[in-house]
Design a protein that fits this description.
Oligomer: homodimer
Largest interface: A-B, 34 and 34 residues
Structural class of chain A: alpha/beta
Number of strands of chain A: 13
Strand content of chain A: 15-25%
Number of helices of chain A: 12
CATH topology of chain A: UDP-N-acetylmuramoyl-L-alanine:D-glutamate ligase
CATH architecture of chain A: 3-Layer(aba) Sandwich
Radius of gyration of chain A: 18 Å
Number of domains of chain A: 1
Helix content of chain A: 25-40%
CATH class of chain A: Alpha Beta
């Protein structure tokens, strides 16, 4: 089944302890789509400028990603400049040139309207809500956000959260959003804001899934009401070259796996699929950081992904 | 089979967001012994002063812990004063009154010499080494340390590390000891310093086990040479009342389970026992933090421990 992802398609200029890169292909929707493409059909809604060349589009289309929803307009694409020299675990933003992204108004092609899975990558919550409302038939809606929207656009973000089956968010953002210091209490408070489930990312410490009663009901696991938390480890990575896009790649692997299983299961999301998806997301995140930009995901294979999945299961199961 | 633990038996005065306690029973050997007592026989070598009353000794003996190795001398017991008001995840030491612990010279009772399992809790590495040498027949030796010994007594610590089958250590200490920023590279570097395996503690993010070739050989799993890392999650705890002793309680549960299985398996440590022990350690650590001092471990039961073990398995296994 198809995922529609809406989000940024951008260029990143990066500095990490492993080196420096100028204007490599990036953006949340790019990383997400590439990661998800190993599992299912992906359609992208975004906007780029004249600097986005056919060679950039080919990175996505060569993996079968449908890019007809990427709007080309006059001007330059979104360009982010960041450094990981001080702290590999947290980017320091040196420049954010929104360019054509400043006026982004998502346009959903007619042919995308039957997408069953919707992923609202990290953009203005006003736009996230608009896209969600334009896709009333999406049967599963997931989304991401960031500290900027939590701090300055809280009210709009809360409207989006009520629409989400899955909120993908990092550990610090959970504490910020909930005003808590404990990770479990924090997650429960965020759940109470509306999303039916959370996937909380803790970088090298993996991810945690938190399920509301509504999500358990949606997954037919009411009898399993104790299982409100699930943890998946991260694949151990010795050489983190570039952490940019790790979270988006996680989300792509996670959601891509869920969508792929929708086909085989007549569309029913089960707890087992959800948990397995967390492992696949973890695998895609670990691959993404092993090279700059999209390099590593471009050259991986489903065989490598499945081998890493097996390794992740071995290192966490008794 | 019996564990001999050598370490501090002390009083702690604590302040946490949940409240304040004066002179509650504490010390690494105390927390370790209590946690391990739910699994196996434990013998303690330590030193206390006149303020250590029969009621304190009863906390241990009522759980079957053998305290004949606790030496009583004139003066006061080790007394630590700490605060978790700034940061629940890291204690701020307000006062360290070593008292009788300053001249601690471990004396091993004759009846303890047949202990198969030795645990060197966090004390001066010179003493750790002396105890290890006094117990040549111990078939498994594990130990703990802390930042103080890493920074100021590195050479002595390195001698102890070469004697250890298991070094229990926290994530920050691994990075400090290895001078690395990556958790996997750091652990591998520490392994290369001598301990046959590491159990690295990451507080609410659980623990990671790292196995050297020597440990894999000891566990008859040479054919499984890829399985050099294992991760166990932490039990989610919503109300952390007092983190003091969490690591020692982890170690007690971990090592206690290993020793208990030694009986049933004719003394052979297997990878499955090691991994399961990491889960049991995690359970004991999560219990310990739910009340001040030793309160929570005093009132838990093996049934509660096993229920939490089952929960931990459920929340981490596909």
């Amino acid at each position: 089944m198809s995922i529609l992802v809406v989000g940024s398609v951008a260029f990143d200029s990066l500095e990490t302890p492993s080196g420096k890169r100028e204007r490599v292909l990036g953006g949340a929707a790019t990383h997400f789509a590439l990661a998800a493409s190993f599992f299912t059909k992906v359609r992208v809604v975004g906007v780029v400028g004249e600097d986005f060349l056919p060679e950039h589009e080919t990175v996505l289309t060569s993996k079968g990603v449908d890019t007809t929803g990427i709007e080309h307009v006059a001007g330059n694409s979104f360009h982010w400049t960041g450094s990981y020299l001080k702290e590999l675990s947290e980017a320091e933003t040196l420049a954010t040139d929104l360019n054509v992204f400043a006026d982004f108004s998502p346009k959903i092609p007619e042919g995308y309207l039957d997408s069953e899975y919707l992923f609202l990558a990290n953009i203005d919550p006003v736009l996230q809500l608009r896209v969600r409302q334009a896709m009333p038939n999406a049967k599963l809606v997931a989304g991401d956000t960031m500290n900027y929207w939590i701090a300055a656009h809280r009210e709009n973000l809360e409207k989006v959260m009520k629409e989400l089956d899955v909120l993908v968010i990092n550990g610090k953002e959970v504490l910020m959003l909930s005003d808590e210091t404990n990770w479990v209490r924090g997650a429960k408070k965020v759940l109470a804001m509306g999303p039916k489930s959370l996937v909380v990312k803790y970088a090298e410490h993996g991810v945690a899934g938190f399920f509301s009663d509504a999500m358990l009901a949606k997954m037919d696991m009411c009898e399993d009401a104790e299982r409100t938390i699930f943890r998946a480890p991260a694949t151990p990575v010795e050489d983190v070259v570039d952490p940019t896009g790790a979270g988006d790649s996680f989300a792509g692997g996670f959601y891509g796996y869920i969508a792929s299983q929708g086909v085989e299961n007549g569309g029913k999301l089960t707890p087992e699929i959800y948990r397995t998806a967390m492992f696949y997301g973890s695998v895609m995140g670990s691959l993404a950081v092993e090279a700059f930009g999209t390099e590593r995901l471009q050259r991986t294979t489903r065989e490598e992904i499945d081998a890493r999945f097996a390794q992740l299961k071995e290192l966490s199961h008794l």
